[in-house]
C-alpha cells in the first residue's frame, strides 16, 4: 500500500512516517524543503513542493491508496491568510479528480461533530481558541466544512494536548460522552492515525482521542 503524507517534517508527521515505514508501507512525503524531514529509507519518496502548488500536490498523490495530512493551522498571531486550508483544498481537489478516496487529517475539537456530547472536551477548546486564537479557529472550522462536503472517505482525528511522552498504546476514543485525559502522546496520535488507513471504523467520523 502506498500512502502520501503532508506534514511529514512535523513532530507527528515524522513519527507517523517512521511507524508506517516500519510496517512496510510505501511512503511519499510532501515537504517544502528536502532537508526538512531528515529521514531516509528505500520505501520513502520525498517530493519537494509548496502547499500552493496544486499540480505538484496532485503529482505526489497520484498512485497512492490513501492520503494523510498532519498539518495544523499556525498558532502565531503574526500569520496571515489560511495556508493549511489552501493545502487541504488542493489535496481534496486532487484526490477527487484522481478518484482516491481515503483521507485522514488532524484537528482540534474546535471542529464540531453532530455526534458530540456537551462536555469539557468538546466545549473548552472551542471557547479558548475562538477567543484567543481566532484566526486559527476560523481556519480549523473552514477545513472541517470543506472536508465534510467532499466525496472522500474521510476521518478527522481530533485531540487536545499533544505531548512528547513515549508511546503508551492505550488510546481512548470519545465524542464527549466518555471521559479522557486532555493529554495524549504524539506517538500515540501517529499510531491511531496509521491504524485508520485500512480501517473503516471511523469513516465520516471525527473521533477525539486521549490517553
Automatic annotation (TrEMBL):
Gene3D superfamilies: NAD(P)-binding Rossmann-like Domain
Any one Gene Ontology molecular-function term assigned to this protein's record: oxidoreductase activity, acting on the CH-NH group of donors, NAD or NADP as acceptor
Domain NAD(P)-binding per the UniProt entry, residue ranges: 7-198
Recorded superkingdom: Bacteria
SUPFAM superfamilies documented for this protein: NAD(P)-binding Rossmann-fold domains
Protein name: Putative NADH-flavin reductase
Species name: Bacteroides luti
Taxon lineage: Bacteria, Pseudomonadati, Bacteroidota, Bacteroidia, Bacteroidales
Amino acid at each position: 500500500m502506498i500512502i502520501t503524507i503532508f506534514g511529514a517534517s512535523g513532530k507527528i508527521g515524522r513519527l507517523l512516517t517512521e511507524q508506517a515505514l516500519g510496517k512496510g508501507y510505501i511512503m511519499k512525503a510532501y515537504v517544502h524543503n528536502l532537508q526538512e524531514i531528515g529521514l531516509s529509507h528505500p520505501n520513502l519518496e520525498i517530493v519537494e513542493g509548496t502547499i500552493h502548488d496544486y499540480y505538484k500536490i496532485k503529482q505526489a498523490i497520484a498512485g497512492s491508496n490513501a492520503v494523510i495530512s498532519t498539518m495544523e493551522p499556525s498558532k502565531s498571531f503574526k500569520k496571515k491568510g489560511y495556508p493549511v486550508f489552501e493545502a487541504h483544498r488542493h489535496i481534496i481537489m486532487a484526490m477527487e479528480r484522481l478518484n482516491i478516496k481515503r483521507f485522514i487529517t488532524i484537528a482540534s475539537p474546535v471542529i464540531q461533530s453532530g455526534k458530540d456530547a456537551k462536555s469539557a472536551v468538546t466545549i473548552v477548546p472551542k471557547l479558548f481558541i475562538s477567543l484567543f486564537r481566532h484566526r486559527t479557529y476560523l481556519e480549523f472550522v473552514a477545513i472541517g466544512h470543506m472536508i465534510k462536503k467532499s466525496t472522500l472517505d474521510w476521518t478527522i482525528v481530533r485531540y487536545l494536548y499533544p505531548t512528547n511522552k513515549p508511546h503508551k498504546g492505550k488510546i481512548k476514543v470519545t465524542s464527549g460522552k466518555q471521559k479522557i485525559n486532555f493529554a495524549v502522546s504524539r506517538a500515540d496520535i501517529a499510531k491511531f492515525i496509521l491504524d485508520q488507513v485500512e480501517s473503516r471504523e471511523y469513516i465520516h467520523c471525527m473521533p477525539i482521542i486521549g490517553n
